[in-house]
Amino acid sequence: MRAPAASDIAAGEAILSVKNVSLAFGGVKAINDVSFDIKKGEIRAIIGPNGAGKTSMLNVINGFYHPQHGQITFKGRTRQAMRPYEAARGGIARTFQNVALFKGMSALDNIMAGRTLKMRRGFLWQMLRIGPALTEEIAHRRRVEEIIDFLEIQAIRKIQVARLPYGLQKRVELGRALAMEPDLLLLDEPMAGMNLEEKEDMSRFIIDVNDHYGTTIALIEHDMGVVMDLSDRVVVLDHGVKIADGTPDEVKSNQAVIDAYLGVAH
Amino acid sequence: MLYREAGQFKTSYAADMAVFPIRQDRIALWLLLAFVFIGIPLLANFQIWPFGSEYLLRAILVPFLILSLAAIGLNILTGYCGQLSLGSGAFMAIGAYCAYKFGTGVNIPLFGLALSIPPLPVLPSILLGGLMAAIGGILFGIPSLRIKGLYLAVATLAAQFFFDWVFARVQWFTNYTSSGSVNAPQLEFFGLFVNTPIERYMLCLIFVVVFAMLAKNLVRGNLGRQWMAIRDMDIAAELIGIRPLYAKLMAFAISSFIIGVAGALWAFVYLGSWEPLAFSIDRSFQLLFMVIIGGLGSILGSFLGAAFILVLPILLDQVPHALGIPVSVETVSLLVFIVTGALICWLLIVEPHGFARLWATAKEKLRLWPYPY
Amino acid sequence: MPRGIVGAAQREDAVAIDATAAADTFPKLLVHNARVRADRPALRHKDLGIWQTWTWADLLDEVRAYAVGLHRLGLKRGDTIAIVGANRPRIYGSVMAAQMLGAVPVPVYADAVADELAYVLAHAEVRFAAVEDQEQVDKIVSVAERLPKLETMVYDELKGLRDYDHAKLRAIDDVIADGRTALANDPKVAEWLDNEIAAGKGSDISIILYTSGTTGQSKGVVLSAKGCIDAARDTVAFDKLTDQDEALAYLPIAWVGDHYLNYAQQLVAGFCTACPEHGETAMQDLREIGPTFYFAPPRTFETMLTRVMIRMEDASFIKRKLFHYFIGVARRYGEAILNGQPVPVQGRLLYRLGQFLVYAPLKNVLGLSRVRVAYTAGEAIGPDLFSFYRSLGMNLKQLYGQTEAFLYVTCQPDGQIYSDTVGPAAPNVDIRIADSGEVLFKSPGMFVGYFKDDAKTKEAMTSDGYVKTGDAGFFDQKTGHLKIIDRAKDVGKLNDGTLFPPKYIENKLKFFPNIREAVAYGDKRDFVAVMLNIDLTAVGSWAERNNVVYGSYQELAGHPLVYDMVARHVEETNRALAADKMTAGAQIRRFLILHKELDADDGELTRTQKVRRGFIAERYDPLIKALYDGSAEADISTEVTFEDGRKGNLSARVKIRDVTTVPTLEKAA
Amino acid sequence: MILLGQILEVLISGLLSGVLYSLVALGFVLIYKASGVFNFAQGAMVLLAGLALVRSLDFVAAQGFPMWTAIILGLTFAAAVMTLSAYVIERFVLGPLVNQDGLTLFMSTIGVTFVLEGLAQMVFGAEIYPLKLFPTDAWFLAESIFPGGILLNKLDVWGGLIAGVLVAGLAVFFQRTKTGRALRAVADDHSAAQSVGIPISWIWFVVWLVAGLVALVAATVWGTKLGVQFSITFLALKALPVLIIGGFTSVPGAIIGGLIIGAGEKLAEVYLGPFMGGGIEYWFGYVLALVVLMFRPQGLFGERIIERV
Predict the structure, then answer these.
(1) In a designed cystine with C336, which of A23, C163, C341, D175 is the match (CB 3.0 to 4.6 A)?
(2) Chain C residues close to B7, C-beta within 8 Å
(3) Is A174 in the same domain as A62?
(4) Is D117 on the interface with B (CB under 8 A)?
(5) Number of structural domains found in chain A
(6) What are the tens digits of pLDDT across the range B279-301?
(7) The predicted structure's pLDDT at residue D192
(8) What is the 3-state secondary structure (H, E, C) of A226-263?
(9) What pTM, to 2 d.p., does this model score?
(10) Is A213 on the interface with C (CB under 8 A)?
(11) What is the ipTM of this complex?
(12) Is residue A131 part of a domain?
């Protein structure tokens, strides 16, 4: 069992809170008046049947979708929407349901790209690649190597990611997100399409990330076993509406959740 | 087969991130540099085959170097940043005409006040020409923030047609010469005059080597990764904190700068005197073919592509000649069309990443020899 | 770091006397190396993407701080400390730091299961353990109740351990930092440490290596410092190893081979040991480092060769032809060229061409380009395999040894390499063959005894102080080199008293590609007879070429032409056996080819593919009877397990062949 | 009144020449809609069709056949040439490139452009060949309202009529024929179309064939206007802004885009040109297109691009 008790976390400070958010595409309501928060240091799961609005929720949080109503408070700043790179700048990192790596680049360069916000030298320095520019490049390479070490992907660091198997691509993508040193890490189905062993590895990495770097994590996952093992608290969406919110145990015994899931074969 | 990499291990990141991490490659590079910087001038000086006449230097090597430079510029935009451009000819033209203006003195009447800059030396003129091209690049790159892919390609054509017109119709740029054709100023660099083909060759070589090096540094640095990120997956790029505005406009600016400098060199060093037609849409396509055939996203590819596109017509002209088959000039030009087009299709089918990838594959084979993979 | 170097310089005088070439403990050698080759690399580790390098001065500095830190945690002279982990600088550093304090390191196989680990740690009575990572910590924690003496664990890798109870857990980094602070704050600490180093004696226990227990519990082989160093000195001189050499540490640290090569010889010669980045990257790392000194068991060489052959199968037709042609050239001329024997000019030219096209590139991709000396040991190596590597121009040699000898008993000198002998006695080693055929030796590096087991120690020694190897062997008459034939307890006697070494005979047969398995009988019998399995792939392709039609293994195995071919192999084996008087009497008289392949599913092989001679004897009793009663064929019916798990009966009539033996030498003897 | 008449005259002639642009643009749209290929070779196809037509027509006429026979034979021959080129392009270029991204396909059509241009001129000659299929004389309209009337070129009117017929024909083809419906299915979803059992290569061939025939129609009009010559390929470049404004996927968009560009260009040239040194119709269409793009990145009638994560 994970070390900090869920009750401690519930009492903790919220890093992000979503208030009365609604999002619609044309006439279709993807999210309808949803509110919840994510506390500092926790692993928060967002679950729900297909089409529940989970991915849309992540897209709202990191600024890719702009909700029509509601507010998002992140690290004390409240706004209705922001640009994705502002979210990144603010400390939100993200992985995608279908791996969104830079296919033409090596695993190493993909993760290096995640450092882009931390790099300061202008293009003239980069062009000369001497002195401070080289020092900076090396310093960040080192940080990236620590992540590579952490995720145990040493053997593939210089391989173009398009040539990697799916499971490793997911790991590289996690690496790229970690390279941003985020305060909040959004994982969209980190274990989709993985076999059991890969899932176990990924679970371990997620726990280690939370543990080692103290990163707050919000994740979407279909595998209920994984969700129950990993997360401190779970919020359940169904058809864009929040139907439950609480510890894994509370959620598991919630009648609305059971009903929502009964409709979908899992 | 030729590589002996066992024992070449890296103890520092600087060594690990080197452009040529393998010793054998470094040796080959130094040999090549020695040949192009010392060997060729010597051979040319003593008129040793194939440098018996000036033809090779003047008509092949100089244009090859300049177009390679332009191809590097275009490759940054199209190959690295993924923004297809059909307007490179225009940016070459901006470079050429602005360098010409700076070289002959700029006089802008502004509400009665005349802004006037005295004629500048050649080097600053060329660089300022590049700078003007960069500004043009930024202006015509702004649509790239809203539009993508093929729509953008069409938008860059707007630059091509607009500047074609500008330099043909706005006589201010041509210093009101009656013919519309202009002559390059005397090429003088820090008191040295560049006249002979050898000197022109050396001048271009220095430009190309310096710019290639700077470009290589750029594309393997943070900005280069930003470009490639945008090229490969722009949404994800934005979500890791890359500002598309900055990255794309930088790509347009730097690409156009290099192309502009190449344009100025093309006009000053290769042509000497020129008309707007020298930078028509045909030039844009020629450059685009160079980067496609050479390899998108590869500095080396820019050279390979430029060499190929330049050498192909010569080959098509010479080979039937050598075989005793009479071919008219017109037929050769049509043959060039057909062969170039067919080659592009063939390469896109067989190796969409161009000669650079073929080269890399061959190198990989040599490194792994006798293993097949 | 500068602080440490200055400190080291000041301390130089104090230990200078001991830090000569006459250093008799490893810490003194370390000090010596840090003095004479301070800036030469001592350790490399591919970590965070590049080869992080420690010079000897860095290493000494770090080990000193580490030792002080360990001492402050309570480790003291005479304590034992378990070392569990992969080949990493901190793991080797733990060994050095412990020895610096006079404590005794006990390396344990990193892949040992918790139970084995518990046995060794409990038996060695360790108070401390230096481990690599969470995995090892978890293992030890899981058996903690069996280790009441264990006080503190230090670990290299923090990952996953953050939330653990750190009452008994320390990061090696912290230990070193603590030691460094102590050294900086109090000059007396450095002085004390110098005294500790100086206090080490050659007769001290340097290390306890637990032998992997194939039979019963593992035994702790106690080795003295002077013994280890003397043995290493002899072999360093023998192979002319210098501080310019590089080795890759990839063998388990608890194995004597690793401790010998990547610790003892490294410290004596002052060469650089490189640690791979990760288990998965070992092959790549081998390629990057390109060691000059390489040691691997035959299994590794075999895997490597198989991988080469499989990869080459995927090569284009021309490349494949080219490859096989030049490998053929190498087989013809390569070894002769390496051994400096006369070779025709066109052979030399072809070989030179092959060198350019195949051998050198192949060694390059394998990471063996720079190998100056390579050893193989542990078990018999097939002559084809052995000569394959040698024919490429790689100086691969065999050695014979064991943990009790601190590895070397014999080793092959350059220029006297034979695949069927293990070489003459190593320098300063004295070998004697007991009447029973058992090889006995006395060597500088020989062990002090088994830890806490005098009875076993006595058992392993002769009264005049020789160590019993447990292996039977003899000296080859022609070369004077030792030949190991079998485990002594497996060697039997024919009824006429002739020595019968079954594994030796079986191995000889199995070196023929057509023969997959062999089971030899002869103990307490009149003559030697064998049952064979043919190799379906090899013989199958032979059959195809020779238009031999067959429908099944059974059919092919019974084919007269196959029998003829195998008979030729057996006769050749007989000639090889006859070449030596020790084995001349054990020539094969009769053989049969089994109608089915020996199978682990039927209990005929162990899971590691070793034949279970006794079980087979029972199962095929009618055949064995027939082998010895002179009949030309015999019927047999056995129960077999099919691949899908069904069982069935397989009956066959198996033919038996007589083979001619070579009488000449027997007469001569 | 004179001014208004002038404006009307400029506007109408602009609109009509815009229709001619639309003829070329239609070919682009057809191929893009059905195969996602941005066919840069459309201009070259017009050249090829024109050359095939004019050369065969001249040849037949020279043999003494009556004009109408020559026209029919010439059109048949040109159609056959377009069929062959559609087959070759599908079989050897786009077939192997199926499933590649749009940019690669686009670049491959640039290659096709070069091959077609080279081959067409090598086989049929590289001169200027006059074509007289339609009347080209002037026509004065509404003389009663405006002094001097509104001058129109009959050819432009013909062009407008033909374009109208063509669009109607295409509409029927897409709505009523099985192949036409299949084409629309492919445009929506490649794999879906395959699963219904329509071979994608057949579809692509038909699309290229239709585009080729559209090119032939465009060639008859443009050839009559300019003579069949190499510069006819620049029509492709003229058609690009039309596409941008209309959207890559919309047939009505191609028509309306053409009208806008045609009218805008003419008006700009006549009323803005003199202040800017003239010749601005050379680039005006592009700048117009650019402005449209800044507000509607998918063109006026293009399908909205929705980005997904």
Answers:
(1) C341
(2) 246, 288-290, 369-370
(3) no
(4) yes
(5) 2
(6) 999 899 999 989 988 999 999 99
(7) 61
(8) HHHHHCCEEEEEECCEEEEEECHHHHHCCHHHHHHHHC
(9) 0.88
(10) no
(11) 0.85
(12) yes
